[in-house]
């Protein structure tokens, strides 16, 4: 095991197990899809982080070959998916393809599922073969810790009780269930303990569902079971919006963690009582995407990936960088804007590492917009820097918007158009 550290070996065995194989030799035997001719970076995941990382690596150094591996031929944005649930945005407006990105920047796009990663041999295995790399960028997003909720079947439960925390079919299912809610019916929404993808996201979703019900089913109500001691993000503004627009519709209960679920009964249990709903939107606790676990870059907590704040290189496995929701990025929240910022910093310093140059000191920004009605939104923004080996918020660099505002909604629409355009061209 001289060329493979213990973590790489364990990750390799786990990957082989994921392939249904008895051992790692099958990884070595996978046929090379694209023979490696020069320096290559493989990027796994084409979301807010991965697509931008692939693009900016090529912009910084066109001599580096970039291969982007993505299981889907199109990307559906989680930001703004709550507006689809509310009924005033088409999910097609959240969807982009990769054709122009690939053509404009000479990126090889492989549409396939990553089944294993051998970080010692620097090889990624997909169902159609393998790809060698010099450096690897993982932007795997999130997966769920289903096992922490008794009765949760990862296949069957989401068909009855959608989480809709990965945009697409789950988003549309939740929308259909909201439209079909019986008159005067009850919606139950469960929010996991932080950290999770998009801290203000659950509270925006509550607002969007309440907006729909106010206009189409005014006798209905929403019970919110929040495992956190209070609203995680923009709490005062969300409370103001609920009081102003949805008075009496939202029953918010903090410190209420769902421990058990029954999909067929449409019920959840917080250890004190069983609560039934005509519609249940259960958002499970989260962790880094499966690919990160297969690469052996998940930390001792078994959830997220520790990284060097300058380059986002894993502190556990050399040559592997982790960006976006999956990484531990200090004070930065798990958001699309954060992933975009991290991708640009990662691309810059990854190229510098490959060219033997000194790393640059990064500066990050993040803005999260949240709709509270069809026309009004709120926001939170901060700038971040690396200090003492950690990513911290710059004092007095931002904060929450002063009030509910139609102007914030205009800014939000501009942001989503621009960032999706940047990712797809």
Helices and strands in order:
Blueprint: H1 6-18, H2 25-28, E1 40-44, H3 50-60, E2 65-70, E3 74-76, H4 81-86, E4 95-97, H5 99-105, E5 108-111, E6 114-118, E7 123-126, E8 129-132, E9 135-138, E10 142-144, H6 157-160, H7 169-179, E11 186-191, H8 201-216, E12 221-226, H9 235-245, E13 250-253, E14 260-262, E15 267-269, E16 274-276, E17 279-282, E18 286-288, H10 290-294, E19 305-306, E20 320-322, E21 327-328, H11 336-354, E22 363-371, E23 377-387, E24 390-393, E25 399-400, H12 406-424
Parallel strand pairs: 1-2, 1-9, 2-5, 9-20, 11-12, 11-17, 12-13, 19-21
Antiparallel strand pairs: 3-4, 6-7, 7-8, 10-18, 14-15, 15-16, 22-23, 23-24, 23-25
Helix pairs in contact: 3-11, 8-9
Tell me what the structure shows.
The chain has 425 residues and is α/β, with parallel strands linked by helices. The chain has two domains: 6-71 and 112-144 and 287-358, 3-Layer(bba) Sandwich (FAD/NAD(P)-binding domain), CATH 3.50.50; 156-285, FAD/NAD(P)-binding domain, CATH 3.50.50.60. The protein is 30% helix and 25% strand. It is built from twelve helices and 25 strands. The chain has a five-stranded parallel β-sheet, covered by helices on one side. Helix 3 packs parallel to helix 11 (336-354) and helix 8 (201-216) runs parallel beside helix 9. It is globular and about 65 Å long. The two termini are 43 Å apart.
């Amino acid at each position: 095991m001289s060329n493979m550290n213990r973590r790489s070996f364990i990750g390799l065995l786990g990957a082989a197990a994921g392939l249904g194989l008895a051992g790692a030799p099958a990884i070595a035997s996978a046929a090379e899809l694209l023979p490696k001719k020069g320096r290559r970076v493989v990027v796994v995941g084409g979301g807010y982080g991965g697509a931008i990382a692939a693009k900016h690596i090529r912009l910084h150094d066109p001599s580096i070959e970039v291969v982007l591996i993505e299981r889907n031929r199109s990307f559906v944005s989680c930001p703004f998916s709550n507006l689809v649930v509310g009924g005033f945005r088409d999910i097609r407006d959240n969807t982009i393809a990769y054709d122009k990105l690939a053509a404009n920047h000479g990126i090889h796009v492989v549409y396939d599922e990553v089944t294993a990663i051998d970080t010692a041999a620097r090889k990624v295995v997909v169902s159609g073969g393998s790809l060698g790399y010099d450096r690897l960028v993982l932007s795997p997003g999130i997966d769920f810790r289903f096992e922490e909720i008794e009765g949760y079947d990862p296949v069957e439960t989401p068909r009855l009780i959608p989480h809709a925390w990965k945009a697409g079919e789950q988003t549309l299912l939740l929308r259909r269930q909201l439209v079909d809610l019986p008159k005067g019916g009850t919606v139950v929404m469960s929010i996991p303990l932080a950290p999770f993808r998009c801290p203000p996201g659950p509270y925006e979703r509550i607002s969007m569902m309440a907006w729909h019900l106010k206009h189409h089913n005014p006798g209905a109500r929403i019970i919110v079971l929040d495992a956190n001691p209070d609203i995680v993000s923009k709490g005062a503004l969300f409370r103001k919006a609920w009081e102003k627009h949805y008075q009496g519709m939202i029953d918010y209960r903090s410190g209420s963690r769902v421990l058990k679920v029954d999909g067929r009964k449409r019920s959840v249990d917080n250890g004190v009582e069983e609560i039934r709903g005509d519609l249940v939107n259960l958002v499970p606790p989260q962790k880094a995407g499966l690919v990160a676990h297969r690469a052996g870059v998940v930390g001792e907590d078994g959830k997220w990936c520790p990284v060097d704040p300058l380059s986002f290189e894993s502190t556990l496995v050399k040559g592997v960088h982790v960006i976006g929701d999956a990484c531990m990025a200090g004070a930065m929240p798990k958001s699309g804007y954060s992933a975009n910022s991290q991708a640009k910093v990662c691309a810059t310093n990854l190229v510098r590492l490959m060219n033997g140059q000194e790393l640059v000191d990064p500066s990050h920004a993040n803005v999260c917009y949240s709709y509270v009605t069809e026309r009004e939104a709120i926001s939170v923004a901060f700038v971040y820097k690396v200090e003492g080996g950690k990513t911290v918020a710059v004092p007095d660099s931002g904060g929450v918007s002063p009030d509910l505002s139609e102007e914030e909604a205009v800014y939000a629409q501009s942001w989503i158009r621009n960032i999706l355009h940047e990712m797809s061209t």
